[in-house]
Write a structure and sequence with these properties.
The protein has 192 residues and is an alpha/beta fold. It has a single domain (3-184), classed as Rossmann fold (3-Layer(aba) Sandwich). 33% of the residues lie in helices and 30% in strands. The chain is built from 5 helices and 7 strands; from the N terminus they run H-E-H-E-H-E-E-H-E-H-E-E. It has a 7-stranded mixed sheet with strand order 3-2-1-4-5-7-6, with helices on both faces. The longest helix has 18 residues, at 3-20. The N and C termini lie far apart (41 Å). 37% of the residues are buried. The model has no long low-confidence stretch (mean pLDDT 95).
């Protein structure tokens, strides 16, 4: 990893996530956490009275993250391994914030209905009014548009609240990207 990326993760990532809306004491799900670039700074923000769930479908990735967390003495993160068809194993309406960064694209979810089904899983576990922070990526690569990506999110029962163009880490590089904030509306819409 480039030194500039390491520095951003160590010094800027917390400020980035606070601006996104993370706060002390919250319960946060990092969906598709991978090595935990965002899990670790998020866990530092929510602190000992909060909880971070780091979810991924790759066992080896989660084992590495678990080792890293132990090495750093971080105790408020629980790693969750899921298979693609699993529901998120958390109670309905139990999570304040979901980070969905660089996951919901056609590389992992080729079909629209797969992306929407995944969004409905997220909808179920978020508290009413809870925050979905969404970083859409690889749009051009897979012939997708930003408007369509946003429409997919709102179509399942989220309301778009804001958009910010920020510096952040993507694929271990420092880039600028669009981060979208959505809140969970009362009920999930039916898949269409
Ligand atoms: C490109 S990484 C993004 C990592 C992290 N969110 C970030 O922005 O640094 C995408 C991760 O999502 C995971 N993933 C993809 N599809 C998934 C699914 N259906 N359920 C859980 N994790 C999934 C992959 O295993 C991978 O670790």
């Amino acid at each position: 990893m480039e030194p500039a990326v390491k520095t951003w993760l160590a010094r800027q990532a917390r400020a980035f996530l606070r601006r996104v809306g993370l706060k002390e004491g919250q319960t946060v799900l990092d969906f598709g956490c991978n090595k935990g670039n965002y899990t670790i700074p998020a866990s530092e923000i929510v602190g000992p009275h909060g909880k971070l769930y780091a979810l991924d479908k790759e066992r080896d990735i989660l084992s590495d993250l678990q080792r890293n967390l132990q090495k750093r003495g971080i105790h408020n993160v629980a790693c969750i391994e899921v298979s693609e068809n699993d529901e998120i194993p958390l109670p309905a309406g139990s999570v304040d914030v979901v980070l969905l960064y660089d996951v919901l694209h056609r590389g992992y979810f080729p079909q629209c209905h797969e992306r929407k089904r995944n969004l409905m899983k997220v909808h179920r576990i978020l508290k009413l009014g809870g925050l979905l922070s969404f970083y859409p990526t690889h749009l051009k690569q897979y012939g997708m548009t930003l408007a369509k990506a946003i429409d997919e999110v709102t179509s399942v029962g989220f309301e778009l609240k804001g958009r910010a163009y920020r510096r952040l880490v993507h694929d271990d590089r420092l880039v600028r990207g669009n981060i979208f904030s959505f809140t969970r509306k009362i009920q999930a819409n039916k898949l269409r």
